[in-house]
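Journal club prep — side note

Before the paper discussion, L.F. wants everyone to see what a predicted structure for a comparable chain looks like in token form. Sequence:
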Amino acid sequence: MISFEGIKILDLTRLLPGAYATQYFAELGAEVIKIEDTGAGDYLREIGPSLKNAPEFSSYFFTTNYNKKSVALDLKTKEGKEIFFRLVEKADIIIEGFRPGTVGKLGIDYSTIKEIKPDIIYCSISAFGQQGERSKMAGHDINFLSLSGFLDVNGNQESSSPAIPGTQFADLGSGMSAILGIVSSLYHRQMTGEGQYIDVSMYDVISSWMLNPYIDYLATGRISKKGSELLSGGVLCYHIYETADNRYLSFGAVEDKFWEQICNTLEMPELRYEAFSSANDENANYVELKNKIKTKTLTNWISLFDKVDCCVTPVLNTEEALNDLHFQNRNLVEYISLDDKGPGTFPKMRLPIKYGLQRSNNENSTKKYFSPPKQGSHTEIVLKEHNFSEKEIAELVRKGIII
């Protein structure tokens, strides 16, 4: 499905949030042009392990930058800004990830760009948003998680230290929020002809995901405690239990019918009406249940629980998750050939959106893919498409304005 063919995006971001957002659009047919500086460029290229059959690519950079172009230019120069303004004339969307105030200093802020392209959709992704006490402060995923209280409510009751998640919730969430903002703005433009400015704060995004702890406090004045709430492991029916082989089972049986099935499978009828009792060692029922789970291995328990409808699942590691039969059924990983790389395939995650009733292994077999760009690898091509002559381009290269 090609939803955004004909849409042109100028992507001035670095690292994960912006790249994740624009990758969705690239996957769905938009032309995404990375606007990189003439120095380091996007340093996501240097982060993460290299692909086995393409060591020139960081796996992190590959998965969020294939099917994109790169133009490298110096926006701090008059000539660099003039080039950018020429690109803006044919663009639909600009997405930037600078610290608030930077685009104003560069002279490429929304107010300036709107004068050139009145219907432009301009999305800013920043740490703490364009206004506020911390708006000029730098930050990364862990900082937003800590300031929002997210880290404080994650972990188990036995540990006093916060637990850092294994994936970047604020980064990925802000990328997804940018997608939502841009798509809704495209619809608004289609209906009204008007452009839009979008302010996405990574701090705002993760704070909005603290829905239950925040509303609980606002309603009752009670501060949520890690591992002690209804949906964070604080009750018998919604908890993680260790098995005999030091693996883990997760129970998600908040409905009575599921908890009944668990009690029957465990042969523990005495727990039938204890689903929401506290999951701590002061509760004899919890201690009894915890010890019962430790009598069998994870495989043994799963073989029993898989026979009933009860919301019990194993805690899998990354390798096990990728090899899980249902993961394979959903075809969430795709191995693609790159038009510019010759033989060989490269892994990428499919979009978690399914169009139509079937998702086959070859659903994207006719789609063309090309490698993530080297810094400035499309500068000359893109400038020619915007009516720059070879002589102009050569002079800009000579001056170091572009590469």
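L.F.'s comment for the group: The domain at 238-315 is CATH 3.30.1540.10 (formyl-coa transferase, domain 3). Keep this in mind when we get to the figures.
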